[in-house]
Structures are given as structure tokens and as C-alpha cells.
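sry for the spam today, last one i promise. C-alpha cells for design, 136 residues
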């Protein structure tokens, strides 16, 4: 394939690729876990994503966060009235503190597309075509 045709095809594919946006929280598929950030999760996310946490306790978590500031560790969840160490331990793998919005984790890291290459890339590798004169 001619290099210009290849570049045009890559640009077309890149331009037509769907943009990546954060999807609204949805139930995670079977076999996956939901990682919930205690400092950004809302009542619905907390009550649906954590074991032993209903809407009332989820509201207590959000209210505790509003009154006392962000959680500094997952263990601080036990400071919320009605939540004890057993509930914290039961949910520890699903919880984090800081680092952005809550996301579904399926056990596989997201894959990034390869960096662009070719004439416009800073680290472009020279292409040697057999039979063409070289600029040495």
C-alpha cells in the first residue's frame, strides 16, 4: 500500500472512531466487580454497588463526607454511623479513596490504540524501499 494511502486510511479511521466518554454507572456484568470511590460516589452508586449498604446507609456516607471532608482511607468508612468493620471488610475490594469516578472493572486493563507512526510522527523510522536512491 502506498504510504500516502496508508496515512489517509489511518486518518479516516481515527476521525470516524467513536469518542471515548464516561458511561453512566450501570450494573456490572457477572464476573466483574465495581470499584467505588468513596469521595465521589453518589447515594445510588453506594447503595447498589456495596454489600450490606442500603439507601439509608449510603445517605449517611454522603452526609459524613459532606460534614467531615473526603475520606482519607477505606478504613474511615467505619466512622460512619451504622457501618462497622465487618461491612468495611466485606466491601474493601470494591472501595477506593480518590482517583476519579467509580468505574466497572472486568479484570482486564483497557487497551490503548498504538501511537501514530509515519511521516508526521516525531520518532518516524525511515522507510527503505528497494530500488530507490538513498539520501545518505
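last one done:
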Amino acid at each position: 500500500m502506498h504510504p500516502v494511502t496508508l496515512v489517509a486510511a489511518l486518518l479516516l479511521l481515527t476521525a470516524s472512531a467513536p469518542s471515548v466518554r464516561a458511561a453512566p454507572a450501570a450494573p456490572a456484568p457477572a464476573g466483574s466487580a465495581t470499584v467505588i470511590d468513596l469521595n465521589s460516589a453518589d447515594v445510588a452508586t453506594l447503595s447498589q454497588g456495596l454489600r450490606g449498604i442500603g439507601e439509608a446507609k449510603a445517605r449517611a456516607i454522603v452526609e459524613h463526607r459532606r460534614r467531615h471532608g473526603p475520606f482519607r482511607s477505606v478504613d474511615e468508612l467505619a466512622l460512619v454511623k451504622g457501618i462497622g468493620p465487618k461491612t468495611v471488610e466485606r466491601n474493601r475490594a470494591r472501595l477506593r479513596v480518590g482517583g476519579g469516578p467509580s468505574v466497572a472493572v472486568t479484570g482486564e486493563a483497557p487497551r490503548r490504540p498504538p501511537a501514530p507512526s509515519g511521516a508526521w510522527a516525531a520518532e518516524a523510522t525511515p522507510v527503505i524501499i528497494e530500488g530507490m536512491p538513498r539520501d545518505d
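The domain at 33-105 is CATH 1.10.150.320 (DNA polymerase; domain 1). ok im logging off now
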